[in-house]
Amino acid sequence: MVVKETYSHRVTETIYTTKNSHLQEIHEILNSVALADRRADVVNREIKEAFKSRNWSTEERVLEDAAYRYDAYKDGVAVEVELSLHAYTYRDYMKFLIGQRVKKTDVGVLVIRHESIQMDVAQATFARATSDLRIFSPILTVPILVIGLT
C-alpha cells in the first residue's frame, strides 16, 4: 500500500511531537502491505500481523467490560483499519471518543482507502471520512489522523 493522503482532525503539534515515532511506524507498516484489488479481510489480517510483528497490541479492548476493540494500539495511539463499509467509520469514531474519555487514547488513526481506488459506493473512503470529521467537529473532540491508501 501507499499512503496517498492524510488529514488531521484536531491533531496538535504536541501530539505530533510526542507520538511522532508511533505515527512514523504506522506509515512504515502500511507501506509494507500490498493493497491492490485484494479482499478487505485479507488486507486487514495482513495489516494486523504487521502491527503485531512491530510490538503493537492487536484487538486491544477499549474498555475492560465492553466488546469494543482497537485493531492496533500502542502507548495512547489507537488504530482502526476500515476497508469495508463507510457506516463502520462511525463506530470507529465512537471507540476513539470512549478511549479519550477513559484517558486511554491520545490520538486515533483511521486507515481507509483513498477514493481513487474505491471499489464500491458504500465503501469507506478518505473523502467521506474527512467530510464527516468536518461536519462532526463540534462533537468529535478526540484527535484523529485519517490515512488514505492506494
Strands, helices and their partners?
Elements lengths: L2 E7 L3 H6 L1 H12 L8 H14 L3 E5 L7 E6 L2 E5 L6 H14 L5 E7 L12 H10 L8 E6 L1
Parallel strand pairs: 4-5, 5-6
Antiparallel strand pairs: 1-6, 2-3, 3-4
Which stretches are poorly predicted, pLDDT < 50 over at least 5 residues? none
CATH topology: Restriction Endonuclease
Q: Strands across the major sheet, in which order? A: 1-6-5-4-3-2
Count of separate structural domains: 1
Indicate the radius of gyration in whole angstroms: 14 Å
Q: Structural class, from helix and strand content?
A: alpha/beta
CATH-scheme architecture: 3-Layer(aba) Sandwich
Describe the structure.
This protein is of the alpha/beta class. The protein has a single domain, classed as Restriction Endonuclease. 37% of the residues lie in helices and 24% in strands. It has five helices and six strands; from the N terminus they run βαααβββαβαβ. Strands 1-6-5-4-3-2 form a six-stranded mixed β-sheet, sandwiched between helices. The radius of gyration is 14 Å and the shape is globular. It starts with a strand and ends with a strand. The model has no long low-confidence stretch (mean pLDDT 91).
